[in-house]
Specification:
Layout lengths: L6 E3 L13 H6 L1 H10 L24 E5 L10 H13 L13 E5 L18 H12 L3 E6 L28 H14 L5 E4 L7 E2 L4 E2 L1 H18 L4 E8 L2 E2 L7 E6 L2 E4 H13 L5 E7 L11 H4 L1 H13 L4 E7 L9 H17 L4 E5 L21 H12 L16 E5 L3 E6 L5 E5 L2 E5 L4 E5 L1
Parallel strand pairs: 1-19, 2-3, 2-14, 3-4, 4-5, 5-8, 8-12, 12-13, 13-14
Antiparallel strand pairs: 6-7, 9-11, 10-11, 15-16, 16-19, 17-18
Helix pairs in contact: 2-3, 5-6, 6-7, 9-10, 10-11
Length: 458
């Protein structure tokens, strides 16, 4: 996995300049991002379950490319680092011209992953941290999305007024589904600028160890309660599920093998069964949400991480065969734990995964941002000091050039080791090898360094 890698742009016909899409180019616009963040500094506040903050202008379109905030984000408490990271988020909403503005959707969990227990006791609310996250998103110009997970302890057998974070992923008990739905409705009323809500996260707490199957009936019962409660707040709010992990096993495995397969592996039949149950019994939905990794469920690395990204396209097409609802990937992963990948290799595989998602014409794809408060942060969008990192350049590039409304077009590529995605005005090529390549792409000669990502005009 040695190599130069990096993000670059071919010279445009009218210019001899070369632009970098990596950290250097992003840093060059940091001052502009800071100014935009300051210009968007207006906000409001309120207590309890009443409306909060000013609603931004949100286009009635699919969210497109976005990111998910986790425990650590652009609000860790270091004023300098936070200001720099928030400027990057604001910068992502601007470009060289008004026509190139591409807001990034930003997802935040209702509880956990940076948000405190929103209702530690029945009817007693604490939205301090969630307020802060939604304010940060709206001030950056982003499109806010809330994932309605997880549940206060008293809804799952715990004591009133206390939060045991080790039980975060425990589902509410059936006799508290209505309480959870009421909390979801309170959140929807509090944040009228949020138009998209995802119900729960990865079927957490809904796996039946006795049968070895997902308890789709229990999840669907919770989902239906929440769906009706949110729609009672406003029928125009978009609600989706089931946020089911699209787990797969290596190709040739007979473990829960399904008919959905490719060289990336075989989709878990238990996932197929659970998804079909929800699809048949849901009270309604405005979009479908899933997540998944190209890494097989047994934990073994995929033989070819680049080829494994085809899973995103294959599974998306399988889902589209079952429903015409817009398709969201709430999380998508291409890297096994403790992979040891270097940055150029990681970026090239990430780009390959994003090409696969774009080819599937998904309506939304959220990058799980694994921020930490340490200096080393593989795969993060920015560093602990607020400096931009290469995956952010990728996210910006795909958000600008390949939103859901733009259809990819076929492009001739002489060397299959180069992955290419193109639309009418722009294209991106990825060298999937650790050596330099010279090939023909879209009728032109193109040179790429090892694992290089090259953007080019058409």
């Amino acid at each position: 996995m040695e190599g130069v890698g990096g993000h670059a742009r071919e010279p445009r016909p009218w210019s001899g300049q070369r632009r970098r899409h990596g950290a250097v180019a992003v840093a060059a616009f940091l001052a502009l991002g800071c100014l935009l963040a300051l210009l968007r500094s207006g906000d409001g506040s309120a207590a309890g379950g009443q409306g909060l903050l000013t609603s931004p202008t949100t286009a009635d379109t699919a969210p497109g490319w976005g990111l998910t905030h986790t425990q650590y984000s652009a609000d860790n408490g270091d004023p300098t680092a936070d200001a720099a990271a928030q400027a990057l988020l604001a910068q992502s909403q601007s470009a060289q011209s008004q026509s190139a503005r591409t807001p990034l959707a930003q997802d935040q969990a209702m509880m956990g992953w940076g948000a405190d227990n929103p209702e530690p006791s029945p009817g007693v609310y604490d939205f301090t941290r969630l307020d802060s996250r939604i304010r940060m998103i709206t001030r950056s110009g982003g499109r806010p999305v809330i994932t309605l997970c997880c549940a206060p302890d008293w809804m799952k057998g715990g004591p009133v007024g206390r939060t045991d974070w080790s039980r975060l992923e425990t589902a509410p008990s059936a006799d508290h589904y209505a309480d959870f739905a009421a909390l979801a409705a309170t959140v929807a009323r509090r944040y009228p600028q949020v138009h998209d809500f995802v119900v729960w996260n990865e079927f957490k707490g809904f796996f039946d160890n006795g049968s070895g199957q997902w308890d789709a009936a229990a999840y669907t019962a919770l989902y239906n309660e929440v769906y009706r409660a949110i729609k009672a707040v406003s029928p125009g709010i978009a609600v989706g599920g089931p946020y089911l992990p699209m787990d797969s096993f290596p190709l040739g495995s007979e473990t829960y093998a399904s008919a959905v397969s490719g060289r990336w592996g075989t989709l878990d039949q238990r996932v197929v069964t659970a998804f079909d149950y929800w699809l048949q019994h849901k009270a309604g939905a405005d979009f479908v949400v899933v997540d998944g990794s190209t890494v097989p469920k047994d934990g073994a690395p995929a033989p070819d991480p680049f080829a494994a990204t085809e899973k995103f396209t294959a599974v998306s097409r399988w889902l589209r065969d079952r429903t015409t609802l817009p398709l969201w990937w709430a999380e998508w992963y291409v890297e096994p734990p403790n992979s040891g990948w270097n940055e150029p290799y990681r970026d090239a595989v990430l780009a390959s995964g994003m090409i696969a998602l774009a080819e599937a014409r998904v309506s939304a794809a959220f990058y799980w941002n694994p921020e930490t408060n340490s200096a080393d942060c593989p795969g993060c969008l920015w560093s602990a000091s607020g400096a931009p990192l290469p995956p952010l350049a990728l996210l910006r590039g795909f958000a600008r050039w390949f939103p859901p409304s733009v259809a990819p077009v076929p492009v001739a590529v002489a060397d299959p080791r180069v992955r290419v995605l193109a639309q009418a005005a722009e294209g991106v090529a990825v060298n999937t090898t650790g050596g330099p390549l010279r090939t023909t792409v879209d009728g032109r000669s193109m040179s790429l360094g090892p694992y290089q990502i090259l953007w080019f005009a058409r």
